[in-house]
Amino acid sequence: MKIMAPDESTPLLENSQTKTKTPLPKLQLGLTLFVLFSEPISSQYIFPFINQLIRELGITGGDDRKIGYYAGVIESLFFVTQALTVLWWSRLSDYIGRRPVLLVGLAGLSISNLCFGLSREFWALVASRCIAGALNGNVGVMKSVVGEITDTTNMARAFALIPIVFFAGASIAPLFGGGLVKPHDRWPELFSGSFWVNHPYFLPSLVSASFTTFSFLVTALFLKESLPSKQRGKELQPEPERGSIGAPAGAPGDEDASPVPIRTLLKTYSVIIPIANYGILGLVEIGCFALVPLFYATPVEIGGLGLQPFTIGMIMTAFCVANGLFQALFTARAIERFGERRVFRSAVLAYFPVIASFPTMSWIIQVQKEVGMAIWVLIVAQLLSWAVVEMAYAVIFVFVTRASPNKYSLGTMNGLSQTTTSIARAMGPVTFTSLFAFSKEYNLLGGNLVYVALLVLLCLLVLLSRCLPELEKEQR
Predict the structure, then answer these.
(1) How far apart are CA 369 and CA 361, in angstroms?
(2) Staple 182 to which of 25, 200, 226, 242, CB 3.0 to 4.6 Å?
(3) What is the structure's pLDDT at 463?
(4) What are the pLDDT digits (tens) for 444-459?
(5) pTM given for the model
(6) Contact, 245 vs 413, CB < 8 A?
(7) Helices (H), 254-390
């Protein structure tokens, strides 16, 4: 019998190898996610008490209508300064390694949190939040670490854990942020000194600073350097196939074992497409995140639900917990079964019912004049749809990582993508909440102009999602 040579179009050995999934590096991935947990802990804990702090400092001159303005400035400054610096920290990590940049960021968070708790002047509050944002480029760098300690068979599973960490931190931070203020009133036997009277908001700041300090020690002692050129005992090897999402042979960085210039990256189609998708996704996300509690709290007379703050808090906490479970149970499985591109395109479509729920509930509440069963059903449906949307984040992290022309530019790639979402976080809340008020005040499109604006952005995102190429099976 004549034995036929295997045909190159049917690489049986390669296909069998690609079906074998690499186990997740549990220790290093767990350490990375633990450090990542410090980000929402440090950025979210001030929300429960910032309005009260502004009022007590006398910044507004007794005019409570101005509190929202000053509070908004302080809340946004972290993301504004982060947007200005995160790219350069990520770029620096491509040269000096991931661990040094992470350590600087964690040290900056610890110091700024302590300064915030000690501040008794508005300028000091501003300075502390600016320090936190300017010295902290850790989110982009940690995504680079995840991309470097995984491969194409387990990357999606690893990135699916990142939204869970953020939602967990966003749930816990407000709890201790609001629960530990003014400890001299709650536990006078433990906090009876004049220091606690003069600095009633220092304790939650101290808790946040202590956590980031502990994360600093964990990083310094246990987290390994993931940048290939800085790993001890390893010489630089020819770069393996990364599974680029669309860079053709000869694309920038193919043969160069060094970071690709930023200008070159910005001119590369396969780089810009996932970053543009991430930026628009972040803008729509922060718009919905700002509008949900505002719409829930707005009086029924002007088209809101008129819910109490405690009820809104319970709804959002339940959503964070349920969403975390949903992502843990379904995201990675969906990606493995349907592929990254199909999951992303389907997930962003779930934003349509999220946005459509706002005017629908507004119309029902105007008819019923109270929050009845129909409203609660729509709230649940809206939040369930939102949980489906969150699957898109794990997928877009994969696309951004795969788009890197070489592994030495991964930090820059994540820095560019994180810059876009930081800008969205800085500008989105004030933009959409102001547009909401403008729509209601002047009854533009029946008070629904803000939702139309969100739908326009969403349509742009849907079109951009069609530009993401299908990853080859051997690249998954």
Answers:
(1) 11
(2) 200
(3) 96
(4) 888 889 899 999 999 9
(5) 0.79
(6) no
(7) 262-266, 269-297, 309-326, 332-338, 340-349, 351-368, 373-389
Cβ atoms of 410 and 144 within 8 Å: the answer is: yes
* Exposed/middle/buried for residue 473 (C-beta within 10 Å: 0-12, 13-18, 19+): exposed
Report d(CA 331, CA 350) in Å as an integer.
14
What is the Cα–Cα distance from 118 to 198, expressed in whole angstroms? 9
312 burial (CB, 10 Å; 0-12 / 13-18 / 19+) is middle
Report the alpha-carbon distance of residue 291 to residue 278 in Å, rounded: 20
Least Cα distance to 413 among 281, 287, 253, 250 occurs for 253
Tokens 């749809």 belong to residue: 385
Q: How far is CA 446 from CA 353, 438, 443, 455, in A?
A: 19, 11, 5, 16
Q: Which DSSP category does 131 fall into?
A: H
Distance between CA 348 and CA 389 in Å, rounded?
A: 6
Write the Ramachandran bin of 308: left for phi over 0, alpha for psi from -120 to 50, otherwise beta. Answer: beta
**Is-contact 356 295, C-beta < 8 A?**
no
Higher pLDDT, 407 or 380: 380
Tell me how far apart the terminal alpha carbons of the chain are, to the nearest angstrom: 37
pLDDT for residue 241 is more than 60: no
Considering the chain, what is the average pLDDT of its residues?
83
Cα–Cα distance for residue pair 77/44, rounded to 1 Å: 13
Biggest CA pair distance of the chain: 96
Q: Identify the sign of the CA torsion 167, 169, 172, 177.
A: negative
Question: How far is residue 125's CA from residue 46's CA, in Å, rounded to a whole number?
Answer: 11
Q: What is the dihedral of CA 452, 386, 23, 143, to 10 degrees?
A: 50
Alpha-carbon distance of 55 to 418, in angstroms, equals 33
What is the phi/psi pair of residue 236, to 5°? -65, 130
Higher pLDDT, 50 or 466: 466
Which residue do the tokens 């139309």 mark?
A: 452
Q: What is the CA radius of gyration of the chain?
A: 24
**pLDDT > 70 fraction of the chain, expressed in percent and rounded:** 88
Instruction: Name, in order, each residue with C-beta under 8 angstroms of 61's C-beta and a sequence gap of 6 or more.
Output: none
DSSP state of 475: G
Q: How far apart are CA 427 and CA 437, in angstroms?
A: 16
Alpha-carbon distance values, 369 to 233, 305, 443 (Å): 70, 9, 19
